[in-house]
Design a protein that fits this description.
Blueprint: E1 13-21, E2 27-37, H1 45-67, H2 69-88, E3 92-97, E4 100-104
Length: 105
């Protein structure tokens, strides 16, 4: 296993993308998509279930992108728009209270 560059909290749920490599070490275009959580996660069972459900839906988006060109295009356009807006600095935090952040777009 390689070096972990980021520390994660016990309650974090991670989406992992593991690329398949050919004999030259180049990506084949295939991925293993998975979700992981810590054994030390202490979220209430209902909260844990809902977050894992969301994570599973995010993982399911990868094969759905392969099957549904319209879905893939929607995600691509959305992502491009977000990146462009971030470059322009259009997102402005207008209020921050505890774990709630209000942003102007």
């Amino acid at each position: 296993m390689g070096t972990i560059f980021q520390q994660f909290d016990d309650n974090d749920i991670l989406i992992r993308l593991s690329p398949f490599l050919d004999q030259k070490g180049s990506w084949t275009g295939e991925l293993l998509v998975g979700i992981a959580s810590s054994e030390d996660n202490d979220l209430p069972e209902d909260d844990y279930f809902h977050i894992m459900q969301l994570g599973s839906m995010l993982c399911a988006a990868v094969p759905l992108m392969e099957d549904d060109e319209k879905f893939r295009d929607m995600l691509y356009k959305y992502t491009q728009n977000v990146l462009e807006e971030e470059k322009k600095g259009k997102r402005e935090i207008v209020e921050k209270h505890d774990n709630i952040i209000k942003v102007n777009f």
